[in-house]
Amino acid sequence: MSVKAFKLVSAVEREMLMGDKNCINIECIECCGKNLYIGTNDCFIYHFMLDEKVSTAGKITFAATKQLHKYLGLKKPVSELKAASALTRLLVLCDNTITLVNMINLEPVPTGARIKGAVTFTLNENPVSGDPFCVEVCIISVKRRTIQMFMVFEDRVQIVKEVFTPEQPCAVAVDGYYLCLALTTQYIILNYNTGVSQDLFPYCSDEKRPIVKRIGRQEFLLAGPGGLGMFATVDGISQRAPVHWSENVIGAALCFPYVVALDDEFITVHSMLDQQQKQTLPFKEGHILQDFEGKVIVATNKGVYILVPLPLEKQIQDLLASHRVEEALVLAKGARRNIPKEKFQVMYKRILQQAGFIQFAQLQFLEAKELFR
């Protein structure tokens, strides 16, 4: 049974990015507040400002205004971008080197600080240093079976730790001292401070693209065997039931209470509350799906789109209108963490009352009595 949880809205159309040049492809994106950055296959970074507009009818659209673009001087694609807003820096991975550039003018920092020998990298969103003017960066090194941790400041970088892994790592997410790693044949949790590691479950990276995503404090989402989206804590246990994805998921994102996944034909939306698939959106040629501060963005090679969530109250009312009382109540309880306490209590009482009348009309008197209570 479907729920309309998200609407797909265009943000950057191909003409804005490439004009009449067909050979330009989007390789990576980063979004920080209203700033949208796009890295392309011809070694350019584009900076747009995203403005959200709401019509009187409540329809949301996005207007992207191009600020500037910058050529990095290489014949290689820009493969990853990450913003460190506290430092007004953008970390740019191109040709196995992470360069620090200014978020506003896209100029490299004058000191020329960079990290060489990176295959891929991620930021630690639960940093251990406690220094607000530094970001912690974890890279998969070009050295075989090696992970490196760096502290990145406004104009310098400093290596903190080098860790060796039992097999070649191909994807990583970080939380505090914990690394969640996709190796060649399995996923593991590794504490880089103590060196203690824990096997999670087997996975063949030769057959499918691994997904490792931090979704909250000490919790990760992984693409498991059999098309399952598996949740794992740093203790190596799962506190939630898995969600059933397709076999060929390319990317995953979290927008509570939903897990959004992208494959080569669809965007699918599953609830973390009851693990059911709630929505399917046709989306061909997508190759990027990421969430940025609650904003879920998808991209093809040529365009960028935003998945706009419908208000949870509207989703709950739609479920009640379809007489799907259990699902409505599960979603309402899950909405507690997104809504201020007083507002939630008023809303929840009203939903219980509506649900009670629906059960009463269906002659389910005992259930109705409990809801009215």
TrEMBL record:
It is found in: Cytoplasm. Keywords: Cytoplasm, Protein transport, Transport. GO terms for biological process: autophagy; endosomal vesicle fusion; protein transport. The keyword Zinc does not apply. Its main location: cytoplasm. One of its GO terms (cellular component) is cytoplasm. The keyword Chloroplast does not apply. Pfam families: CNH. InterPro entries: CNH_dom (IPR001180), Vam6/VPS39/TRAP1 (IPR032914). Residues 23-296 form the CNH domain. It comes from the Eukaryota. PANTHER family: CNH DOMAIN CONTAINING, TRANSFORMING GROWTH FACTOR-BETA RECEPTOR-ASSOCIATED PROTEIN 1. This is TGFA1 protein. It comes from Piprites chloris. The gene is Tgfbrap1.
